[in-house]
Amino acid sequence: MSFIDSLKEAARNDRKKIVLPESMDQRTYEAAVKIVKEGIADIVIIGTPEEIEKNGAGYDLTGISFVDPFNDPNKQKYIDKFVELRAKKGVTAEMAQEQMEKDYMYYACLMCKCGDADGVVSGACHSTGNTIRPALQLLKTRPGIHSVSGFFLMEVPDCTLGENGLFVFADCAVNPQIDAEKMAEIAAVSAESFRSFVGAEPKVALLSFSTMGSAKSDDVTKVQEAVRIAKERYPEIALDGELQLDAALVESVGALKAPGSPVAGKANTLVFPSLEAGNIGYKLVQRLAKANAYGPVLQGLSMPVNDLSRGCYADDIVGVVAMTAVQAQAMAK
Ligand code: ACO
């Protein structure tokens, strides 16, 4: 069974309610129809009757729920919650209402916050920043976590490295600035993500252009400091660094450059030292190794919210909804 089929199977076992706020995009309807038909999740689309009639024309929408943000009996509850969460930032009831009606991503996050939905998938026609910001503002990080980050589950064909070609790469999507503290935390959260999605033990490499002090620079020192913090805080996780990519992945190179490391040559969870490296790195593997890149999946939020590429197909939305549902199951435990 492929990775994505096993996720769909897991999602079906305990159905979660996922909100799709992009009623202005036809791919939303195409995906929603498939998701409901395959029993992967219950779907709520946010939109006015006019938006749904116009953009959902031609689709059999049986089994999909709809919320009209201008005419919803729960709306006042969401406005009150918005104000409660953001009053210190100067948000009034009028501002909350306007924001929710203008940007349905806010509406979707408030549905989750009030317990009326389990997760959100958006971004087919919104930028990553505009998709993530409402979640950061309203849902916030889960207890003990300071930064949300974004990982890709990489499925590399014909590959024996990692977990038979499966890897977590992070942060590839969110934090433009990564210091040692943040990198250490991303390492720990990525290990959890690997365990919950792949079902195997994570082996986490904190990557650099240096292996165990082979080069010296402030960038190397940052990664070394991240490794020190992570080892101290999360002694139960198999992690190591700083490692170059080949030392992290290839047994013979790892043995040569980092002898005795519990991770070198066996890494399946790669933590990049910057957003540039992570974002470029996953795209290189996706394009040159023809890997499937599932994500970016946000990790560290109090509830699952995930972003889509604007070039996505309806089937990509189906996959991300399955991942979001599986995250919601894990968070409910
Ligand atoms: N974790 C937790 N909270 C955060 C994080 C984070 N990583 N970043 C920002 N926040 C919080 C802030 O503390 C703030 O909270 P507050 O309003 O309660 O005080 C809130 O989120 C808004 O933060 P700002 O910094 O004002 O928001 P901004 O819009 O500037 O930044 C964002 C957040 C959108 C995530 C920004 O960092 C960003 O655009 N990152 C890059 C996204 C991107 O373009 N990625 C590459 C493309 S993705 C791809 O190719 C797959």
Name the features.
globular; binds acetyl coenzyme *A; alpha/beta; 333 residues; 6-stranded mixed sheet
Shape: globular
Class inferred from helices and paired strands? alpha/beta
Query: Unreliable segments (pLDDT under 50, ≥5 consecutive)?
Result: none
- Mean pLDDT across all residues, rounded? 96
Distance between the termini: 25 Å
- Give me the number of helical elements: 14
Report the bound ligands by name, code or SMILES: acetyl coenzyme *A
β-strand number: 11
Main sheet: strand order: 8-7-9-6-5-10
Strand-residue proportion: 15-25%
Query: What would you report as the Rg, rounded to the nearest angstrom?
Result: 21 Å
* Helix/strand order, N-terminal first: HEHEHEHHHEHEHEHEHEHHEHEEH
Please outline the major beta sheet.
6 strands, mixed
**What percent of the residues sit in helical stretches (DSSP H or I)?**
40-55%
Give a quick rundown of the structure.
The protein has 333 residues and is of the alpha/beta class.
Description:
The strands form two sheets. The chain has a six-stranded mixed beta sheet with strand order 8-7-9-6-5-10, sandwiched between helices. A five-stranded parallel beta sheet has the order 3-2-1-4-11, with helices on both faces. The chain contains 14 helices and eleven strands. The model has no long low-confidence stretch (mean pLDDT 96). It has helices at residues 3-13, 26-38, 49-55, 75-86, 93-102, 104-113, 128-138, 161-164, 180-198, 218-233, 245-249, 251-257, 275-288, 314-332; strands at 17-20, 42-46, 65-67, 119-122, 149-155, 166-170, 203-207, 238-243, 269-271, 292-299, 305-307. It is an alpha/beta fold and 333 residues long. It is globular and about 65 Å long. 47% of the residues lie in helices and 16% in strands. The structure holds acetyl coenzyme *A (ACO). Acetyl coenzyme *A (ACO) binds at residues 128-129, 132-133, 136-137, 141, 147-148, 173-176, 279, 296.
